Amino acid sequence: MTIQQYQEKCITTATYPRFGNGNYIYPFLGLSGEFGEFYEKQDNYIYDEIEQKKEMGDVMWYLVMICYELGIDMERLRDTEESINTFDVGYKLKDGFLLISKFAEYLKKVERDGNDISSIQVTNFVREIYKRLMLYKKFRGWELDEILQMNIDKLQDRKERNVLHGSGDNR
Hints:
By secondary structure, this protein is mostly helical. The chain has six helices and no strands. The chain has helices spanning about 5-10, 25-45, 50-70, 90-115, 120-140, 145-160. Helix 4 packs antiparallel against helix 5. The radius of gyration is 15 Å and the shape is globular.
């Protein structure tokens, strides 16, 4: 599955406020929380591959929705996979929190000052978070297609059961 195909399937599961109207704030906030959950799962002493893959899929969903809202082509990010070195994977994941914090500060100023958001800034942010996810995927020997398909299957199941809204991993 390409990132573009994944994004098209993600769009069918999006139900957040002002979806499709340039609302990048909701997916950014979701990304912030899901990245924390992903990191928490990988930082546990008990390794649970399935749970980590689920959380990575959730982070990917929010990344592609940020790009969708702002008209950024996610396929351009796939070239970053070639330059990934698995050296110091733990540091790179922790560094993701710093990236998210800096981007939140940038978004705050955009909103406060009424400025237009820079697609270059967003693309660089998304690329860096994506790179960290691909680093961890490579470190674990996972296939991205499997993670994306797991995520879509989960979301489509929730949509069919009318439980997209709510909280908890197992609804």
